[in-house]
Amino acid sequence: MENFTNTIESIALKGKAWIFATLLISSQLVSAQTVVDVIVDSPDHTTLEAAVIAAELDGTLSGTGPFTVFAPTDAAFDALPAGTVDALLADIPTLTSILTYHVVGAQALSTDLSDKQKIITVNGKKITITIDEAGVKINNVAMVVTADILADNGVVHVIDAVLLPPPATVVDIIVDSPDHTTLEAAVIAADLVETLSGDGPFTVFAPTDAAFAALPEGTVEALLDDIPALTAILTYHVVGAEAWSGDLSDGMEITTLNGKKVTVTIDGSGVTINGVAMVIAADILADNGVVHVIDAVLIPGATSIREEFSDKGAKLSILPNPASSEVNFTFSLQSTQQVTVEIFNTFGQLIETVNYGTLQAGSNSIRKNVSSLSNGIYMVVVNAGNDQTVSKLQITK
Fold it and tell me: CATH assignment of 170-301?
């Protein structure tokens, strides 16, 4: 009987050992999941899976790691211009460059990330982390929609946009833009290419060709013949630090490379510099800084108009705007007042003053012929007693 009992206990012990070994092996099999497996097993990452396989990165990303993968969804790839994915699958070097820009050679959980943090990718270029009330963004374009999907060799964060490796410099952004040929010519003429191709970081407020065309006739040609004046204007558009749109605040003053300050205004219409130049495209990233596209040229010393009238009552409405021949100035008066209208150019020079006599309290509309004004940006100031209202007028013929 004792032998029988011992035999039963032995079998039981062996059974327990077998069960433990089986569970251990099963646990090891479950945990042996790579970041590639996470991508392959996801129904939302079929394009990324195809791209990783086409670039022959599946073997690399199945290695020991650790890796952090920022994984764009199928919807993110679909949002690229038509034909982009097919073109990339046929251009393996470019595809590889883009894919490796989504991979960090270390494990970075969401708790390891911090606002304004820069992380070097396997590509060799950096990504920038932005953290605010909306969540976590990469390069200010891709939102992390699902974080911390753990794998045996790293972690995956799902993002809603494809990250594109930035150009090397802010100069490259200007040169590659079809809307900045005048700025490119000006930067070259002022011999600022080497400076703006340096380590930086730089923030460039980049006026479009249309912005330069809006200057008084002959201004661009005159500036290209006056390099000191041209350099003063160009360096007034550059800040010797990286300032993303999220870093800007209403009323902020920023010192430029020129030495003078620009003033940021943020309201319902968007972000304006010196009250005259609207930011129409923000946060275009380069390795050595960031570019914000603006719709007007900034002139050093021309901020005094905006500063003088920045807190002067109700806004002046101008329609149509842009205009070519006639406009309506609409504004309100609190009481019967003598009214004059002054028009300044972007250099702060007074172009015209018109006395409209006594106008009644309430809403008033004045029709003005502006056909004598050259193409460009103007500030219109309505003076009524001690009250003043101001707005920007663009003339385009």
Answer: 2.30.180.10
The answer to whether 277 touches 211, Cβ cutoff 8 Å, is: yes
Q: Which residues contact 189 (CB under 8 A, 6 or more apart)?
A: 224, 227, 230
Per CATH, the homologous superfamily of domain 32-159 is FAS1 domain (2.30.180.10)
The band of 337, judged by pLDDT with boundaries at 50, 70 and 90, is: confident
pLDDT in tens, 68-93: 999 999 999 999 999 999 999 999 99
The Cα 163–Cα 142 span in angstroms is 7
Determine how many CB atoms are found less than 10 A away from the CB of residue 101. Answer: 22
pLDDT digit string (tens) for 294-305? 999 998 865 433
Domain boundaries, the chain: 32-159, 170-301, 308-395
pTM as predicted: 0.61
Count CB-CB contacts under 10 A for residue 230: 19
The span from the CA of 240 to the CA of 257, in Å, is: 6
308-395 is classed CATH 2.40.160.40: no
